[in-house]
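Hi V.,

Quick status before I head out on leave. The structure for the redesign project is tokenized and pasted below; the design run finished overnight.
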């Protein structure tokens, strides 16, 4: 686990990372030798880590001549930290999956449509990419994933991101997301 301040990673999202600290270079080498997975833990402001994080799969890793690395981490699923196998030289957490509570698919699709309507309007320099993003998300048949992708890219309030990551009910997660998107629009 790499521990960062206020860096919330969500399932279904790519997170680019620059690995430069020695302990995280070792962590990356360990992950690449084993299951190619690690989590981005969020510091609790002291020596601890917030309890819910996203397990990430290393999709790409390029080692630079100076020993640093560029990594692309793909969020796989929410996990809850249940303990620690080791703390030094890098953390290895014991985790369990965060189980999603069931929600009616019709309700989730309606909430997905409502959230997509609240996306910020395209600007001149983002018009094509925003239109493509909206089309791609509309076509996705996994409303829960759409909620996570929207939260990762469009919610900037750190306490809201924490609540969105920790919430295991996709209906409530969408309701929180919609509230944040409405705040961003000044509704």
């Amino acid at each position: 686990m790499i521990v960062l301040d206020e860096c919330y990673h969500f399932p279904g999202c790519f997170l680019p990372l620059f690995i430069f600290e020695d302990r995280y270079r070792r962590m990356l080498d360990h992950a690449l030798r084993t299951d190619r997975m690690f989590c981005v833990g969020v510091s609790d402001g002291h020596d601890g880590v917030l309890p819910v994080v996203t397990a990430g799969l290393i999709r790409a890793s390029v080692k630079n001549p100076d020993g640093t690395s560029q990594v692309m981490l793909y969020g796989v699923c929410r996990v809850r930290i249940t303990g620690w196998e080791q703390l030094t030289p890098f953390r290895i957490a014991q985790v369990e999956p965060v189980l999603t509570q069931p929600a009616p698919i019709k309700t989730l699709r309606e909430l997905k449509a409502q959230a997509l309507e609240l996306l910020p309007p395209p600007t001149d320099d983002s018009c094509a990419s925003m239109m493509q993003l909206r089309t791609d998300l509309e076509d996705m048949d996994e409303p829960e994933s759409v909620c996570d992708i929207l939260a990762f890219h469009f919610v900037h309030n750190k306490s809201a991101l924490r609540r969105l990551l920790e919430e295991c009910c996709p209906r409530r997660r969408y309701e929180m997301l919609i509230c944040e998107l409405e705040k961003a629009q000044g509704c």
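Above is the designed sequence. Residues 13 and 153 are 9 Å apart (CA to CA).

G. will cover questions while I'm gone.

Best,
W.
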